[in-house]
């Protein structure tokens, strides 16, 4: 069940050699912001649910599908609140995916954080 859909621009993904948390996420996002003039901004739709995050193109084709448990950190730009990013783990590698929205970055960030916290708390220890 999809909790919410958001329209956004996907600015790309960066592989991180050693990522621990939100500060690493912010650094990767800042690096992506510096490259933004040289990148085509892809319009996408984000679907956030308790089970995961889907990134779809405007034709509804799934580009990326991430289980919510693979998302390790979520951050928002401190100055330009329209930018946000998250770090995810896939097959022993870590990536930072960066996005820009006109409105709603804080809501997306909060929904991702809430979904990851809920999933973490529901996982048997």
From TrEMBL:
Coiled coil: none annotated. InterPro entries: Adapter_Engulfment-Domain, PH-like_dom_sf, PTB/PI_dom. SUPFAM superfamilies: PH domain-like. It comes from the Eukaryota. Residues 6-121 form the PID domain. This is PID domain-containing protein. It comes from Globodera rostochiensis. The lineage of its organism: Eukaryota, Metazoa, Ecdysozoa, Nematoda, Chromadorea.
């Amino acid at each position: 069940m999809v909790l919410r859909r958001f329209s956004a621009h996907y600015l790309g993904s960066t592989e991180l050699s050693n990522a621990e948390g939100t500060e690493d996420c912010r650094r990767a996002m800042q690096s992506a912001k510096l490259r933004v003039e040289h990148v085509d901004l892809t319009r996408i739709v984000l679907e956030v649910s308790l089970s995961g995050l889907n990134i779809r193109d405007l034709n509804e084709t799934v580009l990326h599908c991430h289980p919510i448990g693979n998302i390790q950190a979520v951050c928002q730009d401190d100055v330009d609140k329209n930018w946000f990013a998250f770090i995810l783990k896939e097959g022993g590698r870590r990536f930072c995916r960066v996005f820009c929205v006109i409105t709603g970055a804080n809501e997306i960030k909060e929904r991702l954080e809430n979904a990851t916290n809920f999933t973490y708390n529901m996982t048997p220890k």
